[in-house]
Specification:
By secondary structure, this protein is an alpha/beta fold. The protein contains 13 helices and 14 strands. About 45% of the residues lie in helices and about 25% in strands. It is globular.
Length: about 400
């Protein structure tokens, strides 16, 4: 028998039978949309492999506990936003159980005690919550910002030994699901995530041809999908950003409701066989334009044009976000910066290529590694600072 150590995530939809009885078709359509547009992409982004699906349940294997827990937190933060427009009694939510344990491998499937513990922990989880084992907790402690509460040693069904269990706090996500009273009274803004956050609004169809609507929506959806591949970015899901389709754009309000710093908006205009796409990236907090561009193309093959424009926009705005974050970190007081902010401020200095800036960058990268020893970019920055110090002749020997 082949064995290996794996991080196992067991997921289950809360109240599946009740939801199916109330609205079978609607529940299945929304569940499939969540899986297709967000959940399965999140598994892939964190290197998870779906092992099996059991009705409303999913079993996923990850190479790392940190990635398994990070993926679960991202999903649990996003689900209230994606279901915000659904009546509370019919909203889809999940429970997650995560364990690090030994598994038996048979073809593409896995079995054993490690899988069983994850499944039992999932049953302990609250709706919208995450329950992890003690072995999983030992591997994420000090390596993530997630806060965990000890639930004691639990006696799980068909597990002979007691299992230490912890509940992972799902906080700081884009919780847009506030009631209409809060909206009308200007409810409080959401807490920004600890990495660059962006919402892509539906591109406006300005051609006057309703048949071109699918093209503008398609470009917006493709940009969201491509940006979601960058693990350094927090990207709002399509179902949330598309709720603003057809509304007057108030970038600051939309960003506050979705809990993001940056907003990408654009328009599409068709004339004959030519098409023009414009896009602009806005820092919603300052209302400053970070980047803007327009693209003119011949509409010979609409899907080729759509792919080309999507890739071009994504390739342009990802580094622009990094530059904007570096400038923001440079303006902030060092005492107010976390590992990410210290790292961005270090990049601002390292790219100036002077002796003083290189020394300052090295100091900032060192502070970043101390703030979060598991933050790999800070170590990469520190090594680059040492290299630059020698290569540019600042070392002295």
């Amino acid at each position: 028998m082949e064995r290996r150590l794996s991080a196992i995530l067991a997921a289950d939809m809360v109240g599946y039978s009740r939801l199916m009885e109330a609205d079978e078709v609607g529940t299945i359509k929304r569940q499939n949309a969540h899986r297709r547009e967000f959940i399965d992409l999140a598994f892939k982004r964190y290197h998870g492999r779906i092992i099996k699906e059991m009705g409303d349940g999913i079993l996923v294997e990850f190479p790392s506990v940190v990635e398994a827990v990070s993926c679960a937190v991202d999903i649990q933060r996003a689900m209230p936003v994606r279901e915000a427009d659904v009546p509370e009694s019919r909203r889809i939510s999940y429970r997650f159980g995560i364990n690090l344990g030994d598994v038996v491998v048979k073809g593409e499937d896995i079995f054993g005690d490690g899988v069983n513990v994850a499944a039992r922990l999932e049953q302990l989880s609250k709706p919208g919550g995450i329950c992890i084992s003690g072995t999983a907790y030992d591997h994420i402690e000090g390596r993530t910002e997630f806060k965990c509460s000890f639930l004691g040693e639990q006696k799980l069904k068909n597990i002979s030994r007691p299992i230490r269990a912890y509940s992972v706090a799902v906080t700081a996500g884009p919780q847009k699901a506030m009631d209409e009273k809060e909206k009308s009274s200007g409810g409080a803004s959401l807490t920004l995530p600890d990495k660059p956050s962006i919402a892509v609004l539906p591109f406006e169809n300005m051609s006057g041809d309703p048949e071109q609507e699918y093209f503008s929506d398609g470009i917006s959806e493709d940009i969201i999908t491509e940006l979601s591949r960058f693990r350094s970015l927090f990207v709002i899901a399509r179902n949330s950003s598309f709720t603003y389709k057809g509304q007057a754009t108030d970038v600051q309000r939309i960003a506050a409701e979705l809990g993001v710093r940056y907003v990408l908006e654009g328009s599409i205009r068709k004339a004959g066989s030519r098409i023009r796409v414009t896009a602009q990236l806005i820092d919603a907090l300052s209302r400053n334009h970070v980047w803007a561009e327009k693209y003119d193309r011949d509409l010979e093959d609409i899907f080729v044009v759509q792919d080309e424009i999507t890739q071009t926009i994504v390739a342009a705005i990802e580094p622009e976000l990094g530059g904007a974050e570096r400038d923001r970190a440079h303006r902030a007081a060092p005492d107010n910066l976390d590992a990410w902010g210290l790292y961005q401020r270090g990049l601002w200095h390292i790219y100036r290529f002077t002796a003083a800036d290189t020394a300052e960058a090295r100091s900032l990268f060192e502070l970043s590694t101390k703030a979060d020893p598991s933050f790999a970019p800070a170590w990469a920055g520190l090594s680059f600072a040492h290299f630059s110090n020698a290569f540019l002749g600042y070392q002295g020997d």
